[in-house]
Amino acid sequence: MGADTPLEGEGDVEVRVVHPFQATKAYLCPGCNHEIDAGVGHIVAVPLDAPDLRRHWHKGCWGFRQRRRPGR
What we know:
Layout: E1 5-6, E2 12-18, E3 27-28, E4 35-36, E5 42-47, E6 55-57, H1 59-63
Antiparallel strand pairs: 1-2, 2-5, 3-4, 5-6
């Protein structure tokens, strides 16, 4: 996962790895719509042109995001 991995429809994004000890809050993954619990390592995708729209993803959901059908 590079620093400028494209996120479909959002231009370039910075991809950050959050280690389990850094994950202090729960988030909703946009890939599967399930919660990422506190204490679970995950990915944060930050659009370079709109950093306020960052999203927290499960690592597997991020890896398979381009294989999903629209709306899934």
